[in-house]
Amino acid sequence: MRKEDKGAIIDQLGEVLDQYDHFYVTDAAGMNAEDTAALRRSCFEKEIKLMVVKNTLLKKALEKKGEEYAPLFDSLKGNSAVMFTSVGNAPAKLIKEFAKKSKAGKPVLKSAFVEQSVYVGENQLDTLVSIKSKNELIADVIALLQSPAKNVISALQSGGNTITGVLKTLSNK
Question: Which pTM value belongs to this model?
Answer without folding.
Answer: 0.72
